[in-house]
Amino acid sequence: MTRLAEDRRARVPFALLGVLLLVGASTYAAAVTTQGPSRVDRGAAAAMDRASAGSTAALRSAVGEAARAAAAEPVTDPAATPYGRLLSDRRPFRDALRLRIYLRLRERLDATRYRRGSVTAVASVPAATTPAELRRAMDQVTVTRVENGTALRVTVRNLTLTVRDGERLVARENRTRTVTVSTPVLALHDRASAFETRLNRRPLEGPGLGRRLTARLYPVAWARGYAQYGGLPIANVVGTRHVETTTNGALLETQRAVFGRSDPAGRRAMRRATLELGVEDVTAASSVDGQRAKRVLPRPNRRANMSGELPGRRGASAPSPDRRLDVDVGPLAGRALAGLRIESVPSNRSLDAALRAAYRVEAALRTSRDRTYHEPRPEPDPPGPEWRLTDTSVSTDPEVQSSVGMAPTAGDGERQFDSFSRHVVLDRRIRWTWERGNDTLTTGGTWTERYRVGVAVVGSYAPNGSAPDRPTAPRFERGGALDGPNLADVPEKVETRLVERQGGRDAVAAAVANASLGTTEAAVYGDRPSDLRSWTYDDLTRLREQLADRSVEVRAGRVATYTVNPPAKLAATLRERRAALVDPPEQYRGAADRARVNARVALLDATIDRLERRARTHERTRETFGDVLGRVGVESPRTLRRIVETRRTAVVSPRNRIAGSPPGGPVGVVPDGSPAYLTVESVSHERARGVPPSRPYRPLATRNVNLFAAPYGDAADAVSASVTADPSRVRLRTAARVLVASEPVANGSVRDRRRALSRAVAASLDGLRGRARRAVRNGTRLTRPEAEAAVAAAFDRWPDPGRRALAAANGSLAGAIAVAADRRAASPQPERVDRLERRLDTAVADSLRTDTTTVAEDLVSETLTRMRDRSLERASEAATERLARGRLNETLGAVPAGIPVAPVPGYWYATVNVWEVQVRGAYARFTLRTRRGAPTPGGASRYVRDGSTVRLDVDGDGRDERLGRDERIDFRTRTVVAVAVPPYRNGVGDVDGDADERGGSWPDPGCTSWAADACPASE
């Protein structure tokens, strides 16, 4: 079947021959029996048929030749010339193909004619030389893609067949010819266009180079970031070499995704580059020596090694954004417990308040009054006319006698502590004052009232803590959990408060009878056992340990992109587990047991409150972190997370042949880039035939910016909770980190700058020292010299200003001062240590937020720069020795970098850094090879993009006109890489001082200019 399909392309169908024989026989019979047509008519018909068949063959041949020429010089950018404007900006390649088909067909038909005797038959298309004529001629040619682009269906209208006998016109017909030719020119062009489109995609724009680059960069960045965190002498976590190598790997993957296979020479070069990069990483080398292109790219035309796979990405066990981090409550629970043990905190947020609340009783006097006798109250009687009443006063003289009458009873939930009854006689006197002019007169009267009064002293247990509501027994009697007072002392306290302080029982009864009793209700607190505080604190310590075990598991990638809020998740977890953590009994064993649970609730609430404050701080920091990302074109942390997620998108590769049925058929395509490996260095014509001779060509330009390379500066300070008001100064903690990190390399120029920085840090600590002394004096009874001595002793625990400053920042200094002050007190008390530590924590934090504790930025930056230079020098000098001895934890890894996530003293759970990576590249020449559509058996068709100018003689004057250019396959894309490492140490980041690293001829790869005359194609 295949042979028949191929034969029919150059033969007249058998059915048509049968029809022609039948018509010829009929014509001959008619000529014998009649006069019939002349011999000239019979010759004209035969000539017309032969010319028609010849035009079809000419069209088929023209299509094949035009397709190969269009692939060899594809027009992708029309020229601004009269003939270049024949091509549309939207589909210049197809328009150029139609123009070539017309010109080749015209040329073929001019050389094709049929002659028999005096009869001549020719086929022709309209002559066209001007742009307008050529446009009309092109409109007569239609090109259709068939069989997945592996074949062309071409239709030509107005093809004219002319027959002449000598000079006489015998016949003329306009016909339409359609042929289907097996040539994959459109498939090659469309795949090349798709390849270029994918190369210019960013990670979130769909499958392409940006996504593949992201997938390859993340394993590199995370592996090197964790290695640097572990102490390896890594100056650049993400360097130009890593960007170059991963970009080439991503290019080859994109080739496979589009063409079904990748460049064989590119694969070999990629393996060499990966091996060389591995050696560089192991030896900590980072310089660009200018010879990489010669080592990576072999001389052209060597036999291709088609076997082998590209170096794969690291396995799942390597550090990656999928790594899970456990963030626990431990540090905050400890701080919450320390804060709970401080007095003068409102409500139930101090230990004393929580314990006291469990011993609260609401006491009241319940009274009754029954009047048994009364005389009428006298009415005023004026002493005479014109007297005016100006004042009335009443006085009462009570007489109280004991009685056995019934007193009121206690209500529901109340306990009656005492009761008494009295008979009360009230002798009342009234005085009226009268005035008449300047005269004053007083008159009066008396009357008597008798009352039977009952009074009950009651109380109800009314704890106002947050412990769950449960029955409490026993109450108002000694016993309970600690066999303590247990409210047994409350009745006496209530008697004293409501009865004795109001004059005693008789006075209270008289006041009840007179309706003038002042206080009838009061809150009374019972005595607490002496060991209640220590007993409760031991229980709280156990609860703190339970809280410390509570953690949430988060993905490192989400931490790195600030798209997870661990404090908020921890707070939610504690709220969900609240009942189990409080663990209240079904019935409290007295007030002490309730006090213990009150304290547990208070500790849990304080811990949740701290977590929620951290969560709010985290959200504010996230917003500022997003602003920093916005400077490099990333909309938000959520966008950064989506970029991270794209790295796991699988590469979907088609079959290694473009599918198609006859007359096209399957097409195997081999991409061939020149250079096969795009490097940031110059590549010569000797190494890549597509590179112009005697022209420097840099096929790749890269840029990677480390957003938080230094522990200070615009980006790092922007996400810090304490940003200094003066941009020329940095925070004390930042300066301290640099000071401590520079100690191992403190020689020469580093030593001089370090001394100046040390003096500046020490001076900044002086203000903090003064605040600490005042806090000690206000929180204790120490004298001023004693307070100064306590602060000095605590400061001396750390040997140098850098470590003292770090102790102040992480909360250790406050605790040390509190302990030192308590030792100088007359009677040391643990609870006083806790109270003082909280006060000092506040004082130190307030001091660190002021500009008086900041350090000049130039001192820090100069020390850091010289430290980096010295570290790199030592790393280079001792690389071999370190490898031999296995001592890789050199000072280079001590340079601090990155931003602590939630940099709150005592609660720092990760360090994050971000790199923005941009790549721009261009193949000097990019070729797609296939055996389908070749002019000769065993040959190859080539689709070539090399930036050359496309010229063609379209008007037949013998000179080529400029149609346009076949643009090089070039690209530009970018991605963002975020890395998170565990807390402490010195974080992660580029520490060689080059936060903005550029490679190649950034920002323009290739030649100096993209103009055709400045960057010509290779011959």
**So what's the overall shape?**
elongated
Distance between the termini: 43 Å
Q: Describe the biggest sheet? A: 5 strands, antiparallel
Rg over alpha carbons? 49 Å
> Runs with pLDDT <50, length 5+?
1-38, 284-288, 301-316, 343-348, 712-725, 875-894, 1009-1013
What is the count of β-strands?
A: 29
**In what range is the share of β-strand residues?**
15-25%
Mean pLDDT: 81
Region (Disordered): 286-327, 367-415, 988-1019
Biased composition (Basic residues): 293-302
InterPro entries: DUF7286
Coiled coil: 594-621
Which descriptors apply to this entry?
1019 residues; alpha+beta; 5-stranded antiparallel β-sheet; disordered N terminus; 41% helix
Structure at a glance:
With 1019 residues, this protein is an alpha+beta fold.
Describe this entry's structure for a reader.
The protein has 1019 residues and is α+β, with helices and mostly antiparallel strands. Among the domains are: 1-36; 191-319 and 664-707 and 912-924 and 968-999, no CATH class; 326-342 and 533-630; 360-527, no CATH class; 723-872, no CATH class. The chain contains 29 helices and 29 strands. Strands 2, 3, 4, 5 and 6 form a 5-stranded antiparallel β-sheet that branches. A hairpin with a 4-residue loop joins strand 4 and strand 5. Helix 22 (732-741) packs across helix 23 (749-779) and helix 26 packs across helix 27 (830-848). The longest helix is centred in the middle third of the chain and has 41 residues, at 590-630. It is elongated and about 165 Å long. It starts with a helix and ends in a 20-residue tail after the last strand. Residues 1-38, 284-288, 301-316, 343-348, 712-725, 875-894 and 1009-1013 have low confidence and may be disordered. Residues 367-380 have a biased composition (Basic and acidic residues). Residues 390-404 have a biased composition (Polar residues). InterPro entries: DUF7286.
